[in-house]
UniProtKB/TrEMBL annotation:
This is Alpha/beta fold hydrolase. InterPro entries: AB_hydrolase_1, AB_hydrolase_fold, FrsA_esterase. SUPFAM superfamilies: alpha/beta-Hydrolases. Keywords: Hydrolase, Membrane, Transmembrane, Transmembrane helix. Residues 123-233 form the AB hydrolase-1 domain.
């Protein structure tokens, strides 16, 4: 009996010790407190040397081109543009930004490798094409053709919320925003595109990127942010909450789920209220992170004025 008590005591102290070590690691390593960053300091993280490099059309078909270019740091970016089947002097542009764990083909295909596009962003593309938009999408960092075996997305996401290094997630979002800024550099130089009509639509992580991009790049007209995750100040530089007040001359549509496990109704309202423009709308579905297909109708109506 005495030995059993001694063993239990040692086990208890061992557990307490492990918890203590975990807390110390969280405070000193895993938790990256950036809430002291000013808005100007955050915006500075998204600056870059303008100019895309080595732009190449890798595949061409009727009304479609696949392409690649090199980003500011030499990273190769892959993407696709599809044109509407209409005669126009120039096309308004919808840039589609995919969710975490997805890739740019989701904007153009109802399924990929036998798996359905449950986010229904392919239907947003169809609606936009019917309204005369050209639709363009690229792969985010660590996604699609840009996957890095040593940096699996599950680990990056878990590190964001648990005892891990959050820099991979932070860099993924920042550099994905910059990649899209370079994409816009290319768009405005192409005579077939209307550089005054560049619109964004993003799902989940794409919704987060869309809000940040609209905040820091004045060439963006309007944004549709669909179920963006709520990001705390542990990675303040990629939290839309800290930049939403810069979205002051755009039309903004936020579509969210009441039971979303990555953003509560209160958190969504907090971000929405921070958006400075008065031309904004928040639509809430009684759904989780995967919205019902009918949300696409709301997006289509939002695009109607153009």
């Amino acid at each position: 009996m005495r030995n059993m008590k001694l063993i239990l005591k040692r086990v208890c102290w061992g557990v307490v010790g492990l918890i203590g070590i975990g807390l110390i690691y969280y405070v000193l390593v895993a938790r990256i407190p950036e809430d002291h960053l000013s808005q100007d300091e955050i915006v500075a993280k998204y600056q870059y040397f303008k100019g895309f490099h080595d732009f190449k059309v890798t595949s061409r078909a009727k009304m479609m081109r696949e392409f690649s270019f090199k980003s500011f740091d030499g990273e190769k970016v892959y993407g696709k543009v599809v044109f509407p089947n209409t005669n126009q002097e120039s096309f308004p542009v919808l840039v589609g930004i995919h969710a975490m764990g997805r890739s740019y083909p989701r904007w153009f295909q109802s399924s990929l490798k036998g798996r359905p596009t449950v986010t229904h962003v392919d239907k947003i593309t169809q609606a936009a094409l019917q309204k005369g938009f050209a639709v363009i999408a690229i792969d985010a960092r660590f996604h699609g053709k840009r996957k890095v075996k040593e940096k699996p997305l599950r680990s990056i996401w878990n590190d964001l919320h648990f005892f891990g290094n959050k820099s991979d997630y932070e860099n993924m979002i920042i550099n994905t925003v910059i990649d899209n800024r370079l994409l816009i550099d290319w768009i405005v130089e192409q005579p077939e595109f209307n550089s005054e009509e560049i619109h964004l639509a993003g799902y989940s992580m794409g919704g987060q990127v869309s809000l940040i991009l609209a905040a820091i790049d004045g060439r963006v007209e309007d944004v549709v942010s669909i179920v963006p995750p709520f990001i705390s100040n542990s990675v303040a530089s990629v939290s839309p909450l800290n930049l939403a007040s810069l979205i002051n001359d755009n039309r903004v549509l936020m579509i969210v789920g009441a039971y979303d496990d990555v953003a509560s109704p209160e958190e969504n309202r907090l971000v929405f209220d921070k958006i400075a423009t008065t031309q904004k709308q928040l639509i809430t579905y009684q759904a989780d992170h995967i919205l019902p297909e009918e949300y696409v109708d709301q997006v289509a109506r939002w695009l109607s004025p153009f």
